[in-house]
Amino acid sequence: MDEPLPNPPPELKTVLPFVQRANELRTADAVIAYWCCYYAAQLGISSPTTDTAAKMYLLTLMDTLESLKAKLADNDAVTNDAASAAYVENFALKVFVGADNEDRAGKATRQTPRKFLAASHFLELLKIFGTLEPETAEKIKYAKWKAADIAKAFKEGRKPTAGPAGGDAKEEEAKLETAMGPATDSKEEAEYLAREMAKLTTAAPQEVAPPTVFPESLDAKLSSRVQKLAKGAASAVDFEDLETARIQLRQALDILEGRTTK
Q: Which intervals hold domain Vta1/callose synthase N-terminal (predicted)?
């Protein structure tokens, strides 16, 4: 993407967040920008619109997608489904963990909701590769809920509540657009968010002291999760992304040593 894509017409409202994410990452991470465009195109094509402007926009989006694909033709994170899914998940988890760490440390700012919202969008890209795993779907709901919760707190002039809190996640998600205002970011906000997401990709999970006694066995769900994290770490090493490999391995160890059940 040599130039950012214009915002889509109102008839393609569902496409807008992914176009925004693609524009923010077009120079920092062309692979994620490609998958954002890909998902945006999927959403647009499945939209029952007969509007001429919408159809013309989709043609422009498809042209951009083809151009990006040609430039990334030798990249496994675009041409290989398994590698692509691992790359997208690794990136999405980095952004989510970075925003979550910021929130749990009580250091949320007015940009933290946008980081959580961006994380939810990146996690949603995993729908491209199949049905979302339950823990991924929960992270999307949580990220959207935290985005609304923190934005609402700032709007009301109070300090956001750090970490998980009570409340109906679906109800809060419905209030998201009202709490955060219009979906379109200003140029300054978009540039800031892009810089912050680049920083978040190096963030590591918080350390938690291990229990005295480790679990003797894992249920099927946790066992599958550990295997997936280990494969993700191996894929990250293949891409020489050692920080992501460390994050994935730490998450696997947290499960194996009983520090988490997610």
A: 15-156
